[in-house]
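Reproducibility note. Readers wishing to regenerate the assembly model reported in the main text can use the exact inputs given here. Chain order matters: entities are listed in the order in which they were concatenated for prediction.
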Amino acid sequence: MLKEIINALTAPYYLITAAAVLLLISLKYPHKFYTNRSAGIVFACMFAFLGISIIDPNFRLIVTKPDNVPIVGMLFLVPFFTWFSLREAVRNDQRIAEGKPLIEQEETAEKVLTWPDLVYTELICMVVLTVILIGWSMALQAPLEQPANPSSSPNPSKAPWYFLGLQEMLVYFDPWLAGVVFPGLIIVGLMAIPYIDTNPKGNGYFTLKERRWEITTFLFGFLILWILLVILGTFLRGPNWNFFGPYEFWDIHKLEALINVNLSEYIWVKGLGTGLPKNPLIREIFGFIIVLGYFLIIPPILAKKWFKGFYQTLGPIRFHVMTFLLLAMTALPIKMVLRWLFNLKYIIGIPEYFFNI
Amino acid sequence: MANFTDRLKEAFKALSPARVGEYIQESQVYRSIFRVGVPDSDRKRMLVMLGSVFLHLHPVKVRKSGIRMRYTWCMGGITFFLFLVLTFTGLLLMFYYRPTLEYAYVDIRDLREQVPLGIMREIHRWGAHAMVIAVWLHMYRVFMTGSYKPPREFNWNVGVILLVLTLLLSFTGYLLPWDQLAIWAITVGSNMARATPFAGNEGPGAALLKLGDIAFVNNQSDARFALLGGRFVGEAALLRFYVLHCVGLPLVAGFLMAIHFWRIRRDGGISGPL
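Running the prediction on these inputs yields the following structure tokens for the assembly.
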């Protein structure tokens, strides 16, 4: 019974929405969320969840798959470091408010000899890591499945785990976007960060208050749109890339009713009551208006209204690069929500030229 | 004769680890390798950092705040160390592995069944997974401390390329065991290249690139074909991925790492509040 509730609640639309809302609220009230006590509660719950759930055979099967073990590790490491960095940030923000020096500042002026202070820290790190690696390698064999057989594809066929966020994007976008354009934009966007972010504060120490906007954007992209999608793709996507709850059996015959509808059909057939026009450009005219409007009309409006301050400090070039990257990033959650609420398949759908958005 | 045994006994009695150590450290061989000797004074501690090609990656003195584990999490160092571990174990694996359809899978299986103490492949695989996570956490820390800000913008960019190289190294290595997991993961991954705009067979815009009836971009001339050296994941792909994995990508990564480390020092060392 409880298992069924958890299975239902981990469905992508609940999971992603809940995680995003939780992240934004926690960044709004960081001093309440990133404390030792809340970390204790969260990690105790996570360990308890893992410890109890491991009894379930379906859960155990997926979690203990050798290649999934690092991702279980990541499931703990990423929240830990998120909490740790934000707790440092909260402490520093408090010090700034009280006019006291930062945690890092207390020792900035002091210089120590690299040997032994740094060299020995590194040595200890290396020894510990070597021990962990050897122990891990002796405990767990590297996976080796049946010899490659090009004529029988396993179901599900999954990319290596670190690309599962991209594979998860395939649910919402076509391969040319999810597999080529978005990864490219992620790389370009990461490289653009230091040139877009002109805020001189927060250089060399943890802080949230002085960089709230940058950190919120980055954490949303990293934690929700990357890490969470990797975890979703690894543990909760089964045969035919269907969703399976953590305790659900990966049934190859599970059918999900998918009646996704294009925007053109919504407008021409359901809205206007006429048939679809023959010419794809006329058929998709509304989609083009929406997509072009999204990328061309929203930035000037933002520059005039809500992002006025950004426009003034960044200047036109930086501002437009930033808004383009930002809009490209938010395109994913927007498409997700449209899919969940309206079963929307494509905003522009021209399969004749593989041009679907 | 009695005199000699007595002297021998005395010599043995005087023999202590400290004495042996001293003797070794004063020997010509030792002095020729480690010029400075034991770094037991501040002067020697500085000289040792300057004299060693490995240690001179670091400056002689560092800001105390910059080397705190609570600040750096040691993630950059862990990433580099894992790269070294992977280079070493990868080299050992190359002794046993032949990248052909005939042998690839069998060689990997034999690593487990025939090679004594055969955990090299395990260390290599788990180390590779750990390296991907370590790179992510390192970048996360660098972002959260604002360490990409001036004057370190360029080094952040080098780091982003190193992130891509780490993922590509892991991706190319994924194919080499030549089992079902490998070829289908690479098939799923490389199918994306087919959808590259203009350069992929099934990408938007590719249909426009044709002269009369002759399409320039077809399944034998698109981005995916270039990646795999064929229309499907076969022997050519295995060889390409092997060469990239063992030679091409590590060389580029090593080159960029040198720049990355050099720039840390040039840009003012580990970041810290001004």
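We highlight two features of this model. Chain A has a mean pLDDT of 91. Chain A touches chain B through 92 residues (CB under 8 Å).
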